[in-house]
Specification:
Blueprint: H1 22-35, H2 39-54, H3 59-86, H4 104-113, H5 117-120, E1 124-129, H6 135-147, E2 153-157, H7 158-170, H8 174-181, E3 186-192, H9 199-212, E4 217-222, H10 230-233, H11 236-247, E5 250-255, H12 260-270
Parallel strand pairs: 1-4, 1-5, 2-3, 3-4
Length: 274
């Protein structure tokens, strides 16, 4: 039995792989970037490719430009989501806060807190002052700066917070709600003591503060000095325990300044009529 040796394929007989045309390559790359969830690179790679060719950029420089654009877009998007989630007052910003009304040492305290390192140390920020002194604005302005750095914070008034905690307790969801709040690096509680709360309301608030102790920062404003907090927590033991947990690892700021609203009203009255 004889075997016939296979003839080597000639160049003409070999099948050529189909060439991918530029439009096909662009379409495929667009689809791949969409699948990889890289929307900024998907939208900008053609424009950047033209510029890279014109300016004779290296492949590495071209890729670096695209990844930088993608990272920046993601950073901006994340900050936008953090700002929305924070529920901060949009008009109470760092830029429009009247720092000149504050004593120099208080302004310096706020500036020092601006770097956000107290959040890493799970320290609290407690701001005291009379109504209209700018406590809420100061805390919102500071929080805005922290969120712009990518930190997560949530703003709420004390009265709204305790109502939500009571509903969660009634529905047997209190541990779940406290866990949800623990996802924020800083919990902003505005106007503690401004509205008198019942004992049951203060009990759920104390539970929250106890759970956050050394686990997450509390940023708090109050018009009542510590000596009057028995009006808030109703009994001496709970009051002492609440103060102890808040003051340990904390920065205390006192805004001993006149009411900004009163000053503005007086200023408007003295202005001549048009």
């Amino acid at each position: 039995m004889t075997t016939t040796a296979k003839k080597p394929a000639t160049r003409a007989s070999r099948k050529k792989a189909p060439l991918i045309t530029k439009p096909d390559r662009t379409s495929a790359l667009t689809d791949q970037l969409k699948e990889l969830r890289l929307p900024t690179i998907r939208d900008r790679f053609q424009e950047s490719a033209v510029r890279a060719e014109t300016e004779n950029l290296s492949h590495q420089a071209y890729l670096s430009e695209l990844t930088t654009l993608e990272c920046e877009a993601r950073r901006v998007g994340r900050i936008k989501r953090l700002m929305t989630r924070s529920r901060l007052h949009p008009g109470k910003t760092w830029d429009n806060f009247k720092f000149k009304r504050l004593p120099l040492h208080v302004a310096r305290q706020l500036e020092t807190l601006r770097d956000g390192s107290f959040l890493d140390r799970r320290e609290n920020v407690l701001i005291f002052g009379k109504p209209g002194s700018g406590k809420s604005h100061a805390l919102c302005a500071l929080s805005e700066q922290l969120i712009l750095q990518g930190r997560s914070l949530l703003f709420t008034t004390c009265s709204l917070l305790v109502q939500q905690l009571l509903i969660a307790k009634r529905d047997l969801r209190l541990p779940k709600m406290i866990k949800q709040l623990s996802s924020f690096e800083g919990l902003i509680i505005d106007d503690l003591g401004y509205v008198q709360q019942s004992r049951e309301e203060m009990e759920v608030l104390f539970t929250l503060l106890a759970e956050r102790y050394e686990r997450g920062s509390v940023l708090l404003t109050s018009n009542l000095a510590f000596s009057k907090w028995d009006q808030i927590f109703k009994d001496a033991m709970t009051t002492a325990a609440a103060i102890d947990r808040l003051v340990h690892h904390s920065v205390i700021i006192e805004l001993n300044v006149p009411s900004y609203r009163v000053e503005t009203a007086k200023s408007n009255k003295t202005k001549p009529s048009p």
